[in-house]
Each structure stands twice: as structure tokens, then as C-alpha cells.
Amino acid sequence: MRLKDIVERNVVVKLSQLTSDKELIIDLQTRLSAIGFMQGTDINTAIDGVFGAVTKDALDRFCKAAHLNNASTGVFGATFARKLIDTRPPVLLVTPKLEAKKQPTPDALMTALKF
Description:
The protein is mainly α.
């Protein structure tokens, strides 16, 4: 099962079902990673189909950020799946770095002689 299947079929999945469905976990991990909730983890090991501590933490943080209580109720339905699918990653504004002019490093002897 995938997130889109939950939406299309309007099914409700309990946490025990979610954690035992490898395809659904991979889909969940992929979305959580894409929207920035699995940051700080190696993406190659984070998307592994295992509902471990990293995935649980990311899911909890997403639910809090999206104002959903699914993590506490342990029930995941179409509203949760739609919200996860529709959430876009934050836009990061990148400002160009201005290169600072390199000032010549004062010679220690010349600095000492000035005093």
C-alpha cells in the first residue's frame, strides 16, 4: 500500500499496520525526507522500509507541524495521507555571499615596532 492508496480508497490504517507494511513505510520515509523532516540522517539508510526511531521521530514532528493528532491516536487516514502528500518543502532563500576583501595580514614585527 502507498499513501495515495490511503487517499484514493479512503482507508484508515492503524500504527501496527503502518509499521508492518514495508512499501508504505518507504513511501512515508520518502515523503518525510523530501519535505525536510528526516534531516540530519543519511538518506541512503533512512529510507529502508523499517519503522525505527528516526522515522517515528520524523512522523511525530510532521504531525505536530501539520497540527494533526495522528501520532498520538495511532490512526492514519486519508486526511493525514493527503496532508503528507501535499506538503511542500520549505523554500530556502539563498543570498549570494559577498566576498570580503582580503586585508593584508599585518606583520607581527611591524605591528610591534609601531608601539
